[in-house]
């Protein structure tokens, strides 16, 4: 996470502004100071006075001028303080990060927007003295605030498509149908609230440096990049990004086919699921937005089974303890049967439910 849930961050717009905080801490605070007032630890060593960014924003009555930031980043403005056309680190890091990147211009625009809004946040009455280094609470409520903020934001599925292609498609596939051979889940049509929560939880693990949980996530994969490696990429530490990606993935056509088991334990799987799982996931496995319960429909058998086994090993740090204890109580035969039964729930959610002769579930 980019940082703490700060006092004054009372609405979704504030959370978007605060998503620029990590950028500011990394690139700006050493010269401009933690509050943007030009009093950073190296300011006195420069040949010119470092400007107070909050005063610039106040004079405009809006966020820090984005055109000014853009000129500094792309080298159209010579800085007398060090005789170069790019801010120290800023230009170099951006150039390296975007070398050969077809989305470089769009990514730079996002960076500029987040940084500008954060400086505006700093200068507002009552916000100037908020300590930049304040730590986020360890309680889950801190993460939950970011999740709910992301769900309240206006979402842009077109931007989500670009972000998905850049960060997710290599593993989950261009249509988000997953890859059974690598135990990678299908995401197409998954509940938006659950997708946002998963992104937020993975990023929170990375921010906290929860090595035990991260090791579990690494062990829970077979091939390819682990999720913690993906979410640590630049630009994903942002509730707006979560909202956009989730909106895009939620609207994708469902997988046309998913891997199933051998079909020998379907009656047992149905009995266990209806008795133990349907209360939360619903009888048709549609899930529930209010409780961030995922849909289990249109999913690969091998992934479902791997997750059930992984949860019993406590490798999913955001899983409900009661769920973990229940799965740990299952015999191998029961767990396999439930995964096979669920892998046959295909198509969109329907009001009526029956098992077809071919083993699929639906109308």
Automatic annotation (TrEMBL):
<dbReference type="GO" id="GO:0009055">
    <property type="term" value="F:electron transfer activity"/>
</dbReference>
<feature type="domain" description="Cytochrome c">
    <location>
        <begin position="264"/>
        <end position="346"/>
    </location>
</feature>
<dbReference type="Pfam" id="PF00034">
    <property type="entry name" value="Cytochrom_C"/>
</dbReference>
<feature type="domain" description="Cytochrome c">
    <location>
        <begin position="15"/>
        <end position="151"/>
    </location>
</feature>
<dbReference type="InterPro" id="IPR009056">
    <property type="entry name" value="Cyt_c-like_dom"/>
</dbReference>
<protein>
    <recommendedName>
        <fullName>Cytochrome c domain-containing protein</fullName>
    </recommendedName>
</protein>
<dbReference type="Pfam" id="PF13442">
    <property type="entry name" value="Cytochrome_CBB3"/>
</dbReference>
<dbReference type="InterPro" id="IPR036909">
    <property type="entry name" value="Cyt_c-like_dom_sf"/>
</dbReference>
<dbReference type="GO" id="GO:0020037">
    <property type="term" value="F:heme binding"/>
</dbReference>
<feature type="domain" description="Cytochrome c">
    <location>
        <begin position="155"/>
        <end position="253"/>
    </location>
</feature>
<keyword id="KW-0349">Heme</keyword>
<dbReference type="InterPro" id="IPR050597">
    <property type="entry name" value="Cytochrome_c_Oxidase_Subunit"/>
</dbReference>
<dbReference type="GO" id="GO:0046872">
    <property type="term" value="F:metal ion binding"/>
</dbReference>
<keyword id="KW-0813">Transport</keyword>
<keyword id="KW-0479">Metal-binding</keyword>
<keyword id="KW-0408">Iron</keyword>
<keyword id="KW-0249">Electron transport</keyword>
């Amino acid at each position: 996470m980019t940082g703490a849930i700060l006092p004054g961050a009372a609405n979704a717009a504030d959370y978007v502004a605060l998503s620029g905080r990590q950028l500011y801490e990394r690139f700006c605070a050493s010269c401009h100071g933690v509050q943007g007032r030009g009093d950073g630890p190296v300011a006195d060593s420069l040949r010119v006075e470092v400007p107070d960014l909050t005063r610039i924003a106040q004079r405009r009555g809006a966020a820090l001028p984005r055109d000014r930031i853009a000129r500094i980043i792309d080298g159209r403005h010579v800085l007398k303080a060090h005789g170069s056309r790019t801010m120290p680190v800023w230009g170099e890091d951006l150039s390296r990060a975007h070398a050969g990147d077809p989305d470089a211009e769009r990514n730079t625009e996002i960076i500029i927007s987040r940084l500008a809004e954060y400086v505006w946040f700093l200068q507002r009455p009552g916000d100037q003295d908020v300590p930049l280094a304040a730590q986020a609470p360890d309680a889950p409520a801190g993460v939950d605030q970011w999740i709910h903020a992301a769900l309240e934001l206006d979402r842009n599925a077109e931007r989500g498509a670009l972000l998905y292609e850049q960060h997710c498609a290599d593993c989950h596939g261009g249509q988000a149908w997953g890859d059974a051979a690598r135990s990678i889940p299908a995401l197409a049509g998954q509940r938006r609230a659950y997708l946002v929560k998963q992104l937020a939880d993975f990023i929170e693990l990375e921010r906290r440096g929860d090595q035990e949980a991260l090791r579990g996530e690494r062990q829970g994969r077979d091939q390819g990049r682990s999720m913690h490696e993906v979410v640590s990429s630049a630009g994903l530490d942002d509730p707006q990004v979560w909202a956009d990606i989730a909106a895009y993935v939620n609207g994708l056509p469902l997988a046309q086919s998913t891997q199933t088991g051998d079909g020998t334990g379907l009656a047992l799987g149905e009995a266990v699921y209806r008795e133990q799982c349907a209360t939360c996931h619903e009888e048709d496995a549609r899930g529930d937005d209010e409780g961030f319960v995922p849909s289990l429909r249109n999913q690969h058998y091998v992934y479902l089974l791997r997750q059930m086994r992984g949860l019993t090993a406590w490798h999913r740090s955001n899983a409900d303890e009661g769920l973990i204890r229940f799965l740990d109580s299952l015999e191998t035969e029961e767990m396999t049967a439930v995964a096979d039964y669920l892998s046959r729930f295909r198509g969109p959610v329907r009001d009526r439910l029956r098992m077809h002769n071919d083993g699929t579930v639906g109308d």
